[in-house]
Design a protein that fits this description.
The protein is mainly β. Helices cover 13% and strands 59% of the residues. The protein contains 2 helices and 6 strands, in the order ββββαββα. A 5-stranded mixed β-barrel has the order 1-3-4-6-5.
């Protein structure tokens, strides 16, 4: 079986970095991917939540900003947690293993 995801799009907000007592670091951000629907003749934006860890997280935290064009390779994952009122919650995200800066400086101005 294969669990592999590739998205190319623009970062929706500045990435958020979190450092843990264990020394690990996680960076989270979202990516907008536009797609054309020929039936409705409209463009739709799909948003993907991305999470990267350790060295990749540090690189993203330093170099990626809102609006940056990125290519993300990774796998689809489910994050589960318990809410303050005791309910279980979950969300799908992409655990990125490789983030590439796709645009030039000119594209980001």
């Amino acid at each position: 079986m294969v669990n592999s995801v590739v998205v190319v799009g623009r970062v929706g907000q500045n990435p958020e970095m979190k450092y843990f007592d264990s020394g690990k670091v996680r960076t989270s951000f979202s990516v907008a991917v536009n797609r054309w629907n020929p039936r409705t003749k409209e463009e739709t934006t799909d948003w993907f939540n991305i999470e990267v860890w350790d060295k990749q997280a540090e690189i993203v935290g330093e170099w990626v900003k809102k609006g940056t064009l990125v290519g993300v390779e990774g796998r689809l994952a489910v994050s589960k947690w318990q809410t303050p009122d005791g309910e279980m919650a979950e969300r799908y995200l992409i655990r990125g293993t490789n983030v590439r800066l796709m645009g030039s400086k000119k594209d980001e101005n």
